[in-house]
Structures are given as structure tokens and as C-alpha cells.
Amino acid sequence: MTVRAKKHLGQHFLTDENIAKKIADSLTGVGYDTVVEIGPGMGVLTKYLLQKKATVTVLEIDTESVAYLQDDFPKEHINLDTSRERFRIIEGDFLKQNIPTLFNQQQIAIIGNFPYNISSQIVFKAIENRAYVPEFSGMFQKEVAKRIAEKEGSKVYGIISVLTQAFYDVEYLFTVPPTVFNPPPKVDSGVIRLIRKKDFSLPVDEQLFFRVVKTAFNQRRKMLRSSLKSFKLSDSLKEDPIFAKRPEQLSVNEFISLTDKIASHGI
Which pTM value belongs to this model? Predict the structure, then answer.
């Protein structure tokens, strides 16, 4: 049995074994006992994850892929360790899962060859559940991967850059050409790794921080004194030099400082 790639699910199946192994090897194995793969397809990445010590859970929305993994996935990949149950298949949408409940509040690593159309949403879901996700590694459209890893001063630096880097150290690992997929996408892909910071709590109100970042980038060409006017900034606060900058000029720490200034002056 083979699984057909479905356009409406954004499926592009990786066919290069070396790249699959490199993605699996990008995980450090530190700080968690369960690896969660999103969108395993026919298991090209899964089999390399099963060679590691962690328990592997795959989340797949495609019923055809689920049937393949249940019935036709080579059993030698599953029987590497008979001392415990190491492989679980869950049919469902990762974005709709309650992560703490599904994994009994365990620490998990997330990995996958992510569908382009939901890859950013997967990152935001991981950030939302950062208390349970110490590590995250996977393949994105190259443009998105670069944006997540980008630092301030770049035109592609934006909301997802700041919110991810506030809680994770991000590393762009390598680029993947379209030719190693079936069907090949029209663009290059990029693999990145996120490792949660030792202190992943912010010294400011986190909801306010998220709101400040999103509001600022919604009008990214404007100076902050204009784009953040919905916060009812006082005239004296607007004279602070930081409000003469545009959002892409601010580092994560400067966004934290900005949030603190707004909170201390009242909203």
C-alpha cells in the first residue's frame, strides 16, 4: 500500500532517507521522554525516531496514512524495543488537541515535516504549550523557517520571530531542495530547531507582551508611537526614544522593556 499525497492537506512526502535521518538527529533527546511527530505520512522520519530511546507518538489527520501506519508500516521499525510500548498512532488534528491532557502533562518534543499551510499555527500551538514542550524541530517552507529564526533589523522579522524567540533559542539548521519530495513543492524548505530557554517566563505580563507585539507589527511601517496608540500612551511616555522606532528594530528584550513601560504607565 502507498499513500497518495493530498493537496488539500498540504502533503509533500519526503523521499530522501539521509535528510529524514538528519531531521531526526536534530533532536537532542534532553529533557523529555516522548517525541511527537506531526503528519508522519508513510513514516520516512518515524523509523529514525524509533531508533532513539524516546517513546514516539504520531499525530496524523489523513485516514489513508493512519491505515498505512497501522497495517503496512514495516514491523521491524516498531519492534526495536519490546520491553515497553514505544509507538502510538493518534488519528486527529494536532491543532485541536489538548496537549497537557493528551500526554499526561509529560514533557514532549515536537517534530515533523510540517504542511506549509498550517506550519505557523503549529509553532504558535507549541508556544502556547511551552511549559510542556522543551524542544521542537522540523521542516517548514524556507521563507517561514527563516522568519522564525530571524533577528531584529530584518524586513522578515515579525510577530512569529519575537514570540518564538521570547521563549526558545532558535537555530536554522539546513535548507532542503524541492527535488527530495513527492510531489515536489515549488519552493525550498528549511529545517529549524527550537530549544526552550532555561527561564521561559517573562518578567512582564505575558498577555500584554503578546498584545504589544501583535499590535506593533500590524502596522509595521509606522513608528511605535503611532502603531501603539490604542494603548492610550501618555504624551510623556511617547517621548521615550523607543517609541520613535519601528517594530522590526526592536529585539525581544526591547519588546519586553516596551511592555514594561506601557504597563507601568497604565493602559
Answer: 0.92
Any idea what the Cα angle at residue 90 is, between residues 178 and 123, rounded to 5°?
A: 50
Cα–Cα distance measured from residue 223 to residue 229, given in angstroms and rounded to the nearest whole number: 10
| 173 has binding-site annotation | no
Residue 14 marked as a ligand binder:
yes
Could you give the domains of the chain?
Answer: 7-196 (3.40.50.150), 206-264 (1.10.8.100)
Q: Of 143, 150, 148, 95, which Cα lies nearest the Cα of 118?
A: 95
User: Pseudo-torsion of CA 10, 11, 15, 18, nearest 10°?
Assistant: 60
Residues above pLDDT 70, as percent of the chain: 91
Residue 12 known to bind ligand: yes
Of 117, 102, 81, nearest to 9 by C-alpha is 117
pLDDT (tens digit per residue) in 135-146: 999 999 999 999
Residue 248 one-letter amino acid: E
What are the backbone angles phi and psi of residue 124, rounded to the nearest 5°? Answer: -65, -35
Has 265 been labeled as part of a binding site? no
Instruction: Compute the chain's Rg from CA coordinates.
Output: 20
